[in-house]
């Protein structure tokens, strides 16, 4: 069991530092809304990962492989992320134009809807079909090394998720230290940057769905030229 936990350790750390929309929104939530809000958001993210793991485990890899590469899923996920990025950007600009001061911003933080943040984290992670591909790859590579033993697989994946969550908590605590050093304008800039990042990720997902042949060509290039990886 201890060996399986050690095997999961680097994967949990790697997952926590994977650069994606969730990574940026988690830090932004910690900076602008505080520790509890960021943990609520991260709880939704973790739940989405658990759902993906269960889907991968209880579904045959051949079916999952076809679903994972379905262009429609990339298109839907991309459109949702683009819409969220645009709406957030417009709303932020309107709020800032009203010249909301720091005190008003702090009052809003006290009224944070943790359930909404939890759902936001779940949705943002769940619409990223690349996460499904990540867990599919993990189970294909590591399940045989665990002798396909259910108990060992449970320990392995539970360890990845727990380590991932604990590292995220450390990231949240570090990001939270910046909160008192930021002005309302700085917070506005951070939120606007996150909206743009989400928009970019959404466009990337959408492009993968509209031009799936381009994605396949890139995979072929990296496969034939491993030195590019």
Task: Tell me about this structure.
The chain has helices spanning 2-16, 21-33, 35-58, 61-68, 71-97, 102-110, 114-126, 129-142, 150-176, 184-210, 212-224. The chain is mostly helical and 229 residues long. The chain has one domain. Helix 4 runs antiparallel to helix 8 (129-142). The longest helix is centred in the middle third of the chain and has 27 residues, at 71-97. The radius of gyration is 19 Å and the shape is globular. The model is unreliable at 99-109 and 225-229 (pLDDT under 50).
Fold topology:
Blueprint: H1 2-16, H2 21-33, H3 35-58, H4 61-68, H5 71-97, H6 102-110, H7 114-126, H8 129-142, H9 150-176, H10 184-210, H11 212-224
* Termini separation: 33 Å
Strand content: under 5%
Q: Please summarize the sheet with the most strands.
A: none
Anisotropy-based shape = globular
The number of distinct β-strands equals 0
Question: What is the H/E order?
Answer: HHHHHHHHHHH
* Backbone CA Rg: 19 Å
Give the fraction of residues assigned to helices: over 70%
**Low-confidence residue ranges:** 99-109, 225-229
What average pLDDT do the residues reach?
A: 75
Give the helix/strand class. Answer: mainly alpha
Tally of helical runs = 11
* Oligomeric state of this protein: single chain
Number of domains: 1
Organism: Capnocytophaga cynodegmi
InterPro entries: LeuE-type
Protein name: Lysine transporter LysE
Membrane topology: Multi-pass membrane protein
Compose a concise summary of this entry.
This protein is mainly alpha-helical and 229 residues long.
